[in-house]
Amino acid sequence: MPVTTETVFGPFPRTRMRRNRQTDWSRRLVRENTLTVDDLIWPVFIIDGEDRTEPVPSMPGVVRYTIDRLVAAAGEARALGIACIALFPKTDAAVKDTVGTEAANPDNLVCRAVRALKAAYPDLGVLCDVALDPYTDTGHDGICRDGIIINDESVEALIRQSISQAKAGCDIVAPSDMMDGRIGQIRDALDAEGLQHVQIVSYAAKYASCFYGPFRDALGTGASLKGGDKKTYQMDPANSDEALREVAIDLAEGADVVMVKPGMPYLDIIRRVKDQFAVPTFAYQVSGEYSMLKASINNGWFDHDRTVLESLMCFKRAGADAILTYFAVDAARLLKARG
Questions:
Q1: What is the DSSP letter of 100?
Q2: pLDDT number for residue 15
Q3: Lowest CB count within 10 Å: 276, 332, 334, 335, which one?
Q4: What's the pLDDT band for 233 if we cut at 50, 70, 90?
Q5: Helix or strand or coil: residue 318?
Q6: How many CB atoms lie under 10 A from the CB of residue 290?
Q7: Would you say 115 and 168 are in contact if contact means Cβ atoms under 8 Å apart?
């Protein structure tokens, strides 16, 4: 006899599903997933200069910070209980070149920001993106020649970038480039430098998505692509089995945490990864997701507080252990207010 909900739980009227929903205290008692400030990582954009911010027009409410302003904003985030900040630089075009040389500069914008943050707040986690796109004049995450991304040479550049960031004091390097073999080689290089304590969060399943547009505006890399795309190294949105292979490889190479990006359009991938591997799994609520929700909020179509918390809860339900989100500070305030 097939097992059905009626054979397991009994039919109406003995079973009334609404009984557990009728009061707030009862709903809280049977709640399956909980969102807390411990689940939040705040991605921030940084710029050179002093004592200023720049708005990101395609991401209402998001700004780029100079390092001094970043330190102040990070202090507020830390006071709200946010455990980790992720850094993304808008790099001056004058220091960009075809091979992303500036990525490995120990005194580049990211490394200076890391040192400032760790000097001010030693207990605040700092995550650094590892990819060449902020530093190449092509806007690609790897080294591009004649329209082709050169995998192995790109990995060598990513290793140099990772070591510079780790020596500056970051806690996590997060390769988002999707080059083959980079996790194992970065792990080996960090260990050889005595940096065994530095974690690797791998963007293991990063899709060639249309939802990154506002992020590229924020970094100033969109124009560099000149209408090109990243489909030869980021994943095809049609594939999910392939994501499991990518995750398995990165774990075997030494990743401490794996990440799925984008987030809400790929909740099924998060669930499959968590079910298959039972390892720490992060998700990135990317710029396009943020901008869509924020536009609806600003137009009065969505309620701000409910939208922020519901959109983040869906990641927890799918199996994510932590979420990179531009709503992190808003969510932390809401969670604190709710006790």
A1: -
A2: 87
A3: 276
A4: very high
A5: helix
A6: 25
A7: yes
**Counting Cβ atoms within 10 Å, is residue 33 exposed (0-12), middle (13-18) or buried (19+)?**
exposed
Percent helix, strand and coil across the chain, each to the nearest 5:
45, 20, 35
230 in active site:
no
Residue 330 has pLDDT above 60, yes or no: yes
Range from 79-83, 182-186, 222-226, 303-307 carrying the lowest mean pLDDT: 222-226
96 and 144 Cβ atoms separated by less than 8 Å: no
Q: Is 84 left (phi over 0), alpha (psi -120 to 50) or beta?
A: beta
Cβ(279)–Cβ(251) below 8 Å: yes
Backbone phi, then psi, for 214, in 5-degree steps?
-60, -35
40-46 and 257-261: which strand pairing? unpaired
What residues are paired with 217 via a beta bridge?
none
Catalytic, 261? Answer yes
Longest dimension (CA), the chain: 72
DSSP string across 235-303? BPTT-SHHHHHHHHHHHHHT-SEEEEESSGGGHHHHHHHHHHH-S-EEEEE-HHHHHHHHHHHHTTSS-
d(CA 5, CA 13): 14
How many C-beta neighbours within 10 Å does residue 171 have?
A: 18
Catalytic choice (90, 206, 230, 316): 206
Active-site residue, from 90, 230, 261, 274: 261
Residue 163 φ/ψ, nearest 5 degrees: -65, -40
